[in-house]
Amino acid sequence: MKIGILTLPLHTNYGGILQAFALQSFLKQQGHDVWLIKRTWNINYITRIKIFVKHFIKKYILFQKYDANKFIHRHIKQTTQKYFTSETLQKYVKNKHFDAFIVGSDQIWRPKFAGDILYDYFLHFINDQVIKKIAYAASFGEDEWSFSKEQTTICSKLLQQFNAVSVREKSGIMLCKNNMGVIAKHVLDPTMLLGKKNYLLLTKNIKVNGNLFVYNILGSIQENEKIVSIVMKKEHLIPFRMTVNKNNVSVERWLKSFDVAKFVVTDSFHACIFSIIFNKPFIVFTNNVEGRTRFVSLLSEFGLENRLIQSSEQTESVLNTYIDWSFVNLVLKTKQMESLQFLQNALI
User: Fold this and answer.
1) How many CB atoms lie within 10 A of CB 22?
2) Residue 57: how many other CB atoms lie within 10 Å
3) Per-residue DSSP letter, 78
4) What local confidence, expressed as pLDDT, does residue 49 receive?
5) Cα–Cα distance between 213 and 222 in angstroms, integer?
6) What pLDDT band is residue 248 in, cutting at 50, 70 and 90?
């Protein structure tokens, strides 16, 4: 079956890149012909030139070696050219004879993230009724409804035409039901469809020094450092850090960090996921109420809600808590089977 995947534009976010890689890889393992559709925001030529200049400066003047496109070109083999409008994407789909389209994962259904692509994440550009429409682990990113009345009306009508709908957070089930009149199933983030061995294949010959992996995106620097200090002293670990937007490391090196780490401190959703995949004890710090929904949904599935803290004062209690990895891995295996079953049924 020829399948198109539509997700948020891939930039420098490790989790965003890896969830696209994982879903494509998983579907290929099932024998499908899978293409990542590069739909991006409709920006003017002046903005495009500014972006090009920015990348040029980083690469050739500041000598920043990290380039997300290298991983994409190397490991996400089948990708389309960039499409800046629904009309051009519609023409492409019409000529390429797809059997199915899957939207997801990541926060594709969060209006402030999707921007002017929102309706395309509900497959607005597909007129062919034969093409299967599937949502896999789509995320609203929050547990409150943030669509306008017009967006709700249009997106509800589009989603009701889907063959199968699944969401990444449990709260998304009620959002779909109450606001769109659609029954959705809760499934795993695509990155959890693959196992540790799949990711280690990407990290051969990579070395990382240190054993306390600190990966931060947002949040309070001061509070983060307090947490790191407590963990470092109590667990006798040597920290090594990565920070989004300042990184000069590859996706592969980021993955390797979970393999060598004995403990992870983060405020990243996907760093939390990879800590679970690699069976590494971790602490997730977030004082952002708006962004807690994703973490609560994920961690509650594995009985790990206590790993999510809002203050450095909670660090000690987390360090004194044992993680039953045999239970976690059993839950993961069960959810993988359920997620596989969802995809198989949706593609029949």
Assistant:
1) 20
2) 11
3) -
4) 57
5) 17
6) low
- CATH T-level topology, domain 2-194: Rossmann fold (3.40.50)
- Identify the band that residue 155 occupies on the pLDDT scale cut at 50, 70 and 90: very high
Handedness of CA 181, 187, 190, 191 (dihedral sign): positive
Categorize the per-residue pLDDT at 286 as very low, low, confident or very high, splitting at 50, 70 and 90: confident
For residues 22 and 40, the answer to whether their CB atoms sit within 8 Å is no
| 84 close to 42: Cβ distance less than 8 angstroms | yes
The domain limits of the chain are: 2-194, 196-330
Show the tokens assigned to 92: 């492409």
Beta bridge partners of 265: 214, 283
Asked if 297 and 248 touch (Cβ cutoff 8 Å), the reply is no
Pairing of strands 2-6, 263-266: unpaired
CB 117 within 8 A of CB 41: yes
Kindly tell me if the per-residue pLDDT of 247 is higher than 80.
no
As a whole number of angstroms, the distance between CA 50 and CA 107 comes to 26
The answer to whether the beta carbons of residues 51 and 82 sit under 8 Å apart is no
Question: Hey, what long-range contacts does 201-208 have (CB within 8 A, 24 or more apart)?
Answer: 202/75, 202/251, 202/252, 202/255, 203/252, 203/253, 203/255, 203/256, 203/259, 206/252, 206/253, 206/256, 207/256, 208/240, 208/253, 208/256, 208/257, 208/259, 208/260
What is the C-alpha separation between 294 and 300, in angstroms, rounded?
10
Q: How confident is the model at residue 34 (pLDDT cuts 50, 70, 90)?
A: very high
pTM: 0.91
**Diameter of the chain by CA atoms?**
60
Tokens of 57: 């400066």
> Mean pLDDT across the chain, nearest whole number?
90
- At the topology level, CATH places domain 196-330 in Rossmann fold (3.40.50)
| CA separation for the pair 262, 75 (Å, rounded) | 27
For residues 281 and 192, the answer to whether their CB atoms sit within 8 Å is: no
Per-residue pLDDT for 297 more than 90? yes
